[in-house]
Design goal:
The strands form 8 sheets. The protein has a 5-stranded mixed beta sheet with strand order 7-1-11-19-20, with helices on one face. It has a 5-stranded mixed beta sheet with strand order 2-3-4-5-6, covered by helices on one side. It is built from 23 helices and 26 strands. By secondary structure, the protein is of the alpha+beta class. The N terminus is likely disordered. The longest helix is centred in the N-terminal third of the chain and has 45 residues.
Length: 791
């Protein structure tokens, strides 16, 4: 008889049997335990892999996507340069020279030491300068001498390597200066570790001891007073994540920190952190990274920070604005001392050393955005690079800027505007007077200094490139240029020369096909009767100038400016063929006026002002170079006649005050004041340097000062310093077609035996006068000259 098969119950490890229900319970319990583990592990792996990719991409971007670097032209030191000990130390810090306590030996290239009125430095051989230590002596904030310590050789000039101006980080209001880990001073690194993360080099990204310690301290304080984040976590929070205080974000931060520690070396993490960390607000700018902070607060390269200075920056990391030494000096000092004590507790410095540093007062330099980084110039370069499609990363941009002249220009403009403020203070103006300065080399068009206002931190509006103001009388030289060009272009016109006589008298000018009238007036209604063109320009006579424009035709005058010189563009309509245009009744920027005057300085060539000399990639391969050849827009002879007439403006005309201010170089220039007294200008040049100065109010409030009073003193002060130590030349006479003849300066005729004075006047060959002056048979009294260029 067969029996049905018997079910055998499952047997446990000890022989126990389980019912089906019990088995199901065990499986369910195991599932409840293992499923979250499996899911959690899967999620963790997913995010770990995802964060690996995120970290790698960001690290690759940082390592291989360096922002474009802007360099100034090579630093040129020369005897007579307006620079003191502080100025040269700033330059050497900008070039990353290492400061030493004692005079460096000849072998210690790239080092320097300072004295009371001297600096000794050893140039880097790669710059091609001296190969010995050089002593630079100063007197009254000028370089008095430069001589080799060993050879005793006198150096009139020394050329150093180009200085980094700034990195291009986009359009945000941030200032940064990238620093490699190897460039960081050891005491700065230790200061940061002592106060922020002492076990940084031993923990895996998270520090359990720090977390527990912070939690205990916070519980005891019954409030959140200190976090347990490591430097790696802080970097992750600022570098990879957006600010958010949630548990999810804390978990992301912890996992990313763990991943980052696996993907990067500790030194790389610390380098990123110290280049990223926020270190306070200066004006409208946020300062990021210890490199920029060292330049801003101490005017030093980060490698030259003292122990106390490094401790101050390290202390600011926790709360940059409350510990900002500009606004909270006492708090900043206490925080610095706390960092020094932490360094001693950690064994990073001797206790006596820390105490000595703590006894030193906190010394910070004035905010230096304007004088260190040439922000108005940099803004112009950024705009021009963007127009040319130059990428914002991995590029080395060599610019035309002379940082020494730029710093000097900013200081001179600020000081000059302060003096103008005092002159207009009685009117209780709500706004400070503003101004702009542009300086360039006539031969190349290279802009060596550009200042768009008295303080970039207060106003980023670039008046040098953007402010469209009436040029007033500064336009008059181009009326005379059109007249001399007409001598070549229109044989039906009688020859017009600097000795041509016109009547300076009240006149009504008809234009627009007889439909309109224009009646210009001289300053204080003073008229001189018959005058030569030289005299009319020297004394800025309005009525005489408009008569010259009428003689040659308003159309010809407008055509010269708009088309031949190319001053009419999409953003600038140029001038209309009206008599008022002869007196500058239109709008142009200071940079446009610099370009126009450079046509005269360059002998009739249109040499475009330029800021960028070349663009290369990180490997030195040339991407772009400024090689645009100049175009001839006026004859050399015509340009020279105008320049020669403008010399009289400087010597005995409306700008003669420049000579009494101590400016002695051969120069040509023109004062400018608008009809409504809103704008004051002076534009002038030597063969070596052309400078434009504009002064006025942003809101177009009348300045009520002439160009000779408001703008000329600023121009003189800048040009005296900029040309100090340079052997200035004279304006070259075009070969072959320009001749000189002695004339009577009142009548414009050849000087006769009775003429009380003579002038060697310039003429285009064949246009010189043929008659002798017979007017001076008796006594002659010269009419009184107006002392300004006002309309």
């Amino acid at each position: 008889m067969a029996y049905p098969a018997r079910r055998v119950a499952p047997t446990g490890s000890r022989g126990h049997t389980y019912s089906p229900a019990r088995l199901r319970l065990v499986v369910t319990l195991l599932s409840l335990v293992t499923l979250p583990v499996v899911v959690g592990t899967s999620v963790l792996i997913y995010y770990y892999l995802r964060y690996n990719v995120m970290v790698d991409r960001r690290l690759q971007g940082e390592r291989f996507g360096v922002p474009a670097r802007l360099y100034a032209r090579p630093v040129l030191l020369r005897v007579g340069l307006p620079m003191g000990v502080t100025g040269l130390v700033k330059v050497l810090n900008g070039l990353k020279y290492e400061q030493q306590a004692e005079v460096p030996g000849a072998a210690a290239e790239g080092t320097f030491a300072t004295g009371r009125e001297s600096v000794v430095f050893v140039p880097r051989r790669a710059a091609g300068g001296p190969t010995e230590a050089v002593l630079v002596g100063f007197e009254k904030d000028r370089i008095k001498e430069m001589r080799g310590l060993a050879s005793k050789r006198v150096y009139p000039t020394i050329t150093l390597e180009p200085e980094l101006i700034t990195y291009l980080f986009g359009d945000d209001r941030e200032k940064r200066r990238m620093v490699k880990y190897r460039e960081l001073p050891d005491h700065l690194v230790k200061a940061v570790l002592a106060i922020e993360d002492r076990r940084f080099f031993s923990h895996p990204g998270l520090d359990p001891f720090r977390i527990v310690g912070a939690a205990v301290r916070n519980i005891r304080a019954e409030s959140y007073i200190q976090g347990g984040s490591t430097i790696t976590q802080q970097l992750v929070k600022n570098f990879f994540l957006t600010p958010e205080r949630t548990m999810r974000r804390k978990l992301q931060e912890a996992l990313l920190a763990f991943v980052l520690e696996r993907r990067a070396e500790k030194t790389d993490i610390l380098e990123l952190y110290l280049n990223e960390v926020y270190l306070g607000q200066v004006g409208s700018f946020s300062i990021h990274g210890v490199g920029e902070a060292a330049r801003m607060y101490f005017h030093k390269d980060v490698g030259n920070l003292t122990l106390g200075e490094g401790a101050l920056l390290a202390g600011m990391i926790q709360s940059p604005n409350p510990y900002n030494p500009y606004r909270h000096a006492q708090r900043a000092t206490e925080r610095r001392n706390q960092v020094l004590r932490a360094m001693a507790e950690a064994g990073f410095v001797e206790e006596a050393t820390a105490e000595a540093a703590a006894r030193q007062p906190v010394r910070v330099q004035a905010p230096s955005v304007d004088t260190v980084e040439a922000p108005y110039f940099v803004d112009l370069v950024k705009a021009q690079l963007a127009q040319r499609g130059v990428p914002a990363q991995n590029m080395i941009v060599q610019t035309s800027l002379d940082l020494s002249l730029q710093s000097f220009a900013q200081r001179v403009l600020s000081d000059g505007l302060a003096k103008v403020d005092k002159m207009v203070r009685r009117r209780k103006s709500k706004e400070p007077v503003q101004g702009a300065l542009v300086a360039l080399e006539p031969r190349t068009g290279a802009i060596v200094a550009l200042v768009g206002g008295r303080a970039y931190g207060t106003s980023q509006y670039n008046r040098a490139t953007t402010a469209r103001r009436q040029p007033g009388s500064t336009f008059k030289p181009f009326v005379y240029l059109a007249a001399f060009e007409a001598t070549f272009e229109d044989p039906s016109l009688p020859p017009i020369t600097p000795a041509t006589v016109v009547e300076d008298a009240p006149s009504v000018f008809i234009y627009d096909n007889g439909r309109q009238e224009y009646t210009p007036a001289n300053y204080e209604d003073k008229y001189l009767g018959y005058v030569t063109l030289r005299r009319a320009l020297a004394h800025s006579l309005n009525a005489a100038t408009v008569k010259v424009a009428e003689m040659v035709g308003y159309d010809r005058m407008a055509r010269l400016w708009n088309k031949k010189m190319g001053m009419a563009t999409a953003g600038n309509p140029g001038i209309r063929p009206f008599p008022s245009a002869a007196l500058g009744a239109f709008e142009a920027t200071p940079l446009e006026m610099a370009a126009a005057f450079n046509v005269l300085a360059a002998g009739g060539l249109k040499v475009e002002p330029m800021t960028v000399l070349s663009v290369a990639d990180d490997k030195g391969r040339l991407i772009a170079q400024n090689e645009k050849p100049p175009a001839r827009v006026a004859r050399a002879e015509s340009a020279y006649l105008v320049v020669n007439m403008m010399r009289s403006v400087m010597n005995n005309g409306t700008a003669a005050g420049a000579r009494s201010m101590g400016f002695t170089a051969d120069a040509a220039g023109k004062t400018g004041t608008t009809n409504d007294m809103r704008d004051a200008w002076f534009i002038g040049f030597t063969p070596e340097l052309l400078t434009v100065v504009w002064v006025g109010f942003d809101d177009n409030t009348p300045l009520n000062l002439s160009g000779a009073r408001a703008a000329l003193p600023i121009w003189v002060e800048f040009m005296k310093g900029a040309l100090a130590g340079i052997k200035t030349g004279h304006f070259a006479v075009p070969a072959g077609n320009v001749i000189f003849a002695e004339i009577d300066p009142q009548t414009g005729l050849l000087a006769g035996p009775g003429c009380p004075s003579r002038l060697a006047e310039s003429f285009i060959a064949g246009t010189e006068p043929q008659e002798y002056c017979t007017w001076h048979s008796g006594d002659f009294q010269e009419p009184e000259m107006p002392d300004d260029d006002l309309p």
